[in-house]
Design a protein that fits this description.
With about 425 residues, this protein is mainly alpha-helical. It has one domain (about 5-400). The protein has helices at about 5-20, 40-55, 65-90, 95-100, 110-120, 125-145, 170-185, 195-215, 220-230, 235-250, 255-260, 265-275, 280-295, 310-315, 325-330, 335-355, 360-370, 375-380, 380-400. Helix 8 (about 195-215) runs antiparallel to helix 9 (about 220-230) and helix 13 runs parallel beside helix 15 (about 325-330). It is globular.
Length: about 425
């Protein structure tokens, strides 16, 4: 197979893979087009591919694969295995239910398929696959907002914002990060080649508008703004001016807000009360009360598939997924004060080992950590972390492939064979 054909096939396969990896059709209460068990099917494919890829790579020197494999195994052991053991010891929940409850961590094994395809194409193709995936998610979010796309959910989960959706939210955020970074630097974050600033600033506006009007999730809007400030720094003033100009029609014609279905009363209330709600405060209160009563012992996490999960203990509105780092404290108890800093250090160390320039990855990670009280970093963002790790690995591959080859000449004490001697013409 020619190199051109191989890269084209890899590019075509990467797009549906990113659609699966970045949760465009993943089943969730906020995804109107979610397909039941699709995420589980994708995780099974990733695990099987990683296993066979590991078998075929035995005896070969694949430094990037080994580092990413270490990251995935560590994440699975610590954030799947330990909570399952703790919930078994504390509540008596069978281990299998604990493993099922934390299966989202297995998104870390998506690195094998992403790397396998990514190394067979150019950096431009890999970046275009992300943009195409995010644009697909954006189009579907707007189609659902205006009633073109049907709602496949059994019940509505957000009555104050019925037209909101989380279709491909990780893809939208990552694509926004990439576009802002590219607009700021004017080069690819993977291979450093030149990129059009105009195209990427337009795409960034599209993704930001989709997050504001389509996704309508406060955490993601804050995440986008925080990344913009961290990435652009002094240039963020320019971006604020551009955004103000872009949003000026809504101030001149307020009725446009109603046309787009933006719940201004909801966001005004959010500004007064903060980006959380009463349920989250109640859950955090339950967590600290539980920890203090049980001497900060690890409690793990319970699955709804086993005795209705946490409902008999804390009621129907107790969700560890809504309280970010506080959910991590509940799972690990006093051990969280060791596991959290060690894990953050190891993640940074592995990213640094893949490629010394970690600017883009660290900026994206810091932005995620700002909303850590609202979204679990280790437990619910492994798909995003895995993608950022793969970017670091691809940077290393493109760096090594573009580096000039240095030949070392060593004088040999033995004469060259006569077959290698130059023959007189």
């Amino acid at each position: 197979m020619s190199i051109l054909r191989k890269s084209t096939v890899s590019f075509v396969l990467l797009i549906p893979l990113l659609i699966l990896h970045l949760d465009v059709f993943g089943e969730s209460p906020h995804n109107p087009v979610g397909i039941l068990y699709l995420n589980e099917l994708y995780l099974a494919i990733c695990m099987a591919f990683t296993f066979f890829y590991l078998l075929t790579s035995i005896g070969t020197q694949q430094r990037e694969f080994k580092i990413l494999m270490t990251y995935a195994v560590y994440s699975s052991v610590v954030f799947i295995g330990l909570p399952a053991i703790f919930s078994f010891l504390f509540y008596g929940q069978p281990l299998v239910y604990g493993l099922i409850e934390e299966r989202r961590i297995l998104f870390s094994f998506g690195f094998a398929t992403l790397m396998f395809l990514g190394r067979n194409m150019s950096a431009s193709q890999f970046e275009k696959a992300l943009l195409i995936t995010a644009l697909l998610a954006a189009v579907m979010a707007w189609m659902f907002k205006f009633g073109v796309l049907p709602d496949l959910r059994d019940k509505q989960s957000s009555f104050d914002r019925p037209d909101r959706s989380s279709i491909g939210a990780p893809a939208l955020c990552l694509a926004y990060f990439y576009c802002i970074q590219t607009w700021n630097k004017g080069i690819s974050p993977i291979d450093g080649s030149a990129r059009s600033k105009t195209v990427h600033i337009v795409l960034a506006m599209v993704f930001l508008l989709t997050l504001v009007f389509g996704t309508q999730t406060r955490q993601l809007i804050v995440l986008a703004l925080v990344f913009t400030v961290f990435c652009l720094k002094s240039k963020s003033i320019v971006w604020i001016c551009v955004s103000t100009l872009l949003l000026s029609p809504f101030f001149i014609f307020p009725d446009l807000m109603k046309v787009l279905g933006l719940n201004l009363d909801f966001y005004a209330q959010s500004v007064q009360d903060g980006p959380t709600d009463g349920v989250r405060e109640q859950t955090i209160g339950y967590i600290f009360s539980h920890l203090s009563q049980n001497h900060w012992l690890p409690s793990g996490s319970l699955s709804l598939m086993w005795n209705n999960g946490f409902i008999p203990y804390f009621g129907e509105y107790f969700f560890l997924s809504d309280v970010g780092v506080f959910g991590t404290l509940f799972r690990f108890g006093f051990l969280a004060f060791i596991i959290i800093p060690v894990s953050l250090f190891l993640y940074y160390r592995w990213a640094k080992m893949l490629h010394p320039d970690t600017g883009f990855v660290v900026t994206a990670t810091l932005a995620q950590l700002v909303i850590w009280p609202l979204a679990g970093f280790f437990e619910y963002l492994q798909a995003t972390i895995c993608y950022l790790m793969v970017i670091q690995a691809l940077r290393a591959l493109h760096h090594y492939s573009s580096a000039p080859v240095q030949e070392t000449y060593v004088s040999s004490p033995y004469p060259r064979p006569s077959s290698q001697l130059a023959r007189p013409v």
